[in-house]
Structure formats: C-alpha cells, structure tokens
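Hi all, long-time lurker, first post. I run a small reading group and we've been trying to get comfortable going from sequence to structure in the token notation. Rather than ask abstract questions, I figured I'd post a concrete chain and ask someone more experienced to write out its structure so we can walk through it together at our next meeting. Sequence below, copied exactly:
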Amino acid sequence: MVTRARPAKEVEPAPNTKDKVNVLVVDDDATKRFALRTILAPLDENIVEASSGADALRQLLRNEFAVVLLDVRMPIMDGFETAQLIRQRPRSELTPIIFVTALDQAETDMGRGYNLGAVDFVFAPVVPAIMRAKVSVFMELYRAQQELRRYRTQLETLVEERTIALTAINRELEAFSYAVSNDLRGPLIAFDAMSEKLLEQNRSRLDDETARNLDRMREAGKRMTSVFDGLQMLFRLTGGEIKREQVDVSAIAEQAAEEQRAAHPDRKVEVDVAPGIAVNGDRRLVRVLVGNLMDNAWKFSALRPAPRIVVGHESVDGEPRVFVKDNGVGFDMIDTHRLFGAFQRLHSQSDFPGAGLGLATARRIVNRHGGKIWAEGAVGEGATFFFVL
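-- Answer (accepted) --
Happy to help. Here is the structure in token form:
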C-alpha cells in the first residue's frame, strides 16, 4: 500500500505592516523612467512617474513624497529649474532630491545642485544596489518623520483634553471657593461673634468649665476661619495673569516685619533685612510670598530667648536666590518633602498654631513664576528658605 504524503501547508507570509511611501521619478525619457522603476521595484513602494518638470510639480501638489529622483537634463525646464520651484513650495521645501544624470561629474554643476537643496547625485550607469540603498535611507527617514508627526498629533490631542479637564476642575474650585466664602465662613464669623457676646454678658454666671468650653469653641471657629482664608488664597493664586516687574523685596520684608511687630507687641525679634534685594515678578504675589515666609520664620522662632530673622540674597553658580533664615526650632531634613504640602504639619498645633497653608501658598506662587523654592535646616538649629523666580 502506498501512502501518499499530504502536501505541507504553506505558511502565509506575515503581512507587511509598513505603509507604502511615495517615490517620485522625474525624467523626460520613458526608457529611463522604466529602468529606475525596475531598479526600485524590490523596495515595494509606490513609484510615481513624471515626464517633465511641470508634471513633477503637479504630482507634488497632489501627494507627499519621501524622495524625488530628478533628471538633470530635460527640455523646457531642466532639473535645476525644477528643483528651484520645488523648494519654493512650502509642502515640498524639505523633500529630499537626488539628481540622476548621464553627464559625468566634470560636466555637472554639482555646486548649483547642492545650493538648490540636493542631497545627492547619482551618475550613469546607475548601480541598482547603490540606488536602492540611497532611496531606502530617505524612505525610512520619511517614515520616522511621519511617526513623529503622529505622536505630536496625539500629544496635542492629549494636551487639549487635559486642558479642558483642568479648566473644568478650576471652575469647580472656584465654585467651592465661593461656597467656602459665602456658605461656610459667614456662619462661622457669626457664631464667633455670638459666642463672644455670650461670654462677655454671662461670664460671671458661668462655671469655669462652661466658660473654658466656650473659649475652646471660639478658638476652633477661628482656626476654621483661618483655614478657609488660606484655601481662598490658594484658589485665587490659580487664576489671573502674571504681571512681571522689578519688585523691591527688601521693602516688602521690612513692611512684613513691622506688621508682625504690630500683631505681636509682646515679642522682641531681631530682623536683619539686606538692602537692595529685588526680583522680577508679580508684585502682588511676591508680597504674599515674602509675607508668608516672614510669618513662618516669626512663628517658629517664638520659643527662642533671642529670636533672629535674616532676609538676604546670594548668587550660586550664577543663579541669584533670595533667602529667609531664622534661628527657630528647625526641622529634620528627612521631612523636607512635607514642608510645602497643604495642611502638612511638622510641629504640634498647640506649640505653633496655624492652618498649615502658608508654605503651600509660597510654593504655588513660585511655581506660577516658573521658579523653585526649597528649604534647609536642622532640628533645634533653625531653618533657611530659598526661592528663585
């Protein structure tokens, strides 16, 4: 019995995932165009023929080409004149041009060709392998450019989507800020005023524990009001245009120090502000930035017997920076990442009261200026805050 072997199943070739690109062959001689098409056939690309310079320009209006193979000697409009017109059109001003000519190098004005944007010259007789290698380089380059163009389009779409999302978020934040200002802050202020009035009118009739509880309620209300005020400040900083100008930081720091002295007349703090400190930034935002850093230094140096704050400037590696330094409680550098976060606290509320939004606000201001802010310090040795706008 003869057993016939089953024919082996043919393996289908993997589909070519690359999109074909266009190659333009320009020559008035049909025989030469056919020869070039035959040479390029193994590349399996779209070969488009043009029989004259004018025909080539029409083709370039219809399609994009990875490379143009352009004959030098053509009637009416030669290759150099055609190349000049190709370069004048925005769509083809960067399309690579390879001049193909039967003339020898001595007879060919190669300098003129390169001035017109030629990337190469190929002289007859054409070596097929060399021609295919040259054309392949520009086809792969074209594919890479198309891929980059697709990525750029995707990125632009993504940025547009994120911008729309951020705009919506900002609108929600504005609505929340309005609610905080009108629906929450107002009742808190009213509650504080009423509790203060009750204490004044009835303190003599209240027992000590009830009076203390009312005092605690008032303090809690004030802390919440402070938090709402800080949140509103953060929300306001997200909008508006930055109007840069030269800002006198020294004058702002001196004014901030006077405001702190007026608010805390019982404290004696030495403040040393260097003259001539100036930055290029938004005056309103810089005032808030310096005020918050001064407030931070004033607060955390409160436990020192001789508190001192220094406001100065320096240049490191050509970068001018402003700093606010205090000799307060300092911090562990391992906690640096927490310093500028909203509601992040490194010390207890009882020792250093506050909403925990001052440094977060400072960072937001610096970020809006495209600058940077950081801090250095050690526990028990004070802290220094640097910023660059």
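A couple of things your group might point at:
The longest helix spans residues 128-202.
Residues 22-126 form a domain with the Rossmann fold fold (CATH 3.40.50.2300).
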